[in-house]
Amino acid sequence: MGSLQLSKLYVDEIEPKTNAFPVEVSTPFFLLHENAATSVGSTATLMDNWDVIADNYSGFSGSTYTIPQNCGGVWIFLLRVSILGVANGGWSYSALKKNGTIDPLTETWSACHVTNFPRNNSHMISLSSGDTLQMYISQSNGTQNTDYSSRKSIFSGYRLGNLT
């Protein structure tokens, strides 16, 4: 039976061999940062205060990301949220609403053991061109605000590849 050998590769920068052109990413991706507090209660609340940091296929508008034409397939998403005042013993929740319905494959309930600790959730889901996505959150401690000043919420995603 053969053996598997793992190695490490360390680089500071990757450049084309000719150094003539920068490396460009053709895979659709987006990165949004929260730009204002969102008031959050115990029911799912739409996150709609976003600054677009990157969106190479222009799929984001308002509070919604639309999967670009010919870009269906497997996508990976990162949802990060920090809600102020969710005490030890409470919970926070995040999910993606796909085409107007909460996608159960993206629901994440996080027990809070440290107050105001950011929660990071990643999801890999299958999508079709034209599908729409929105980020929703909730929490267990009355009505609180997200911590947009020091621990911004993030909504990001990129296409991993086609389904075969």
Provide a descriptive summary of the structure in words.
With 164 residues, the chain is mainly beta. It has a single domain, classed as Jelly Rolls, CATH 2.60.120.40. The protein is built from no helices and 14 strands. It has strands at residues 29-34, 39-40, 45-46, 50-55, 60-61, 64-66, 73-81, 91-98, 101-102, 108-111, 119-127, 132-139, 144-145, 154-161. The mean pLDDT is 86.
Give the helix/strand layout:
Layout: E1 29-34, E2 39-40, E3 45-46, E4 50-55, E5 60-61, E6 64-66, E7 73-81, E8 91-98, E9 101-102, E10 108-111, E11 119-127, E12 132-139, E13 144-145, E14 154-161
Antiparallel strand pairs: 1-4, 1-14, 2-13, 3-12, 5-6, 6-12, 7-11, 7-14, 8-9, 8-10, 8-12
- Second-tier CATH architecture: Sandwich
CATH domain class? Mainly Beta
Q: By helix and strand content, what is the structural category? A: mainly beta
Fraction of residues in β-strands: 35-45%
**So how many helices?**
0
Q: What form results from the Cα inertia axes?
A: globular
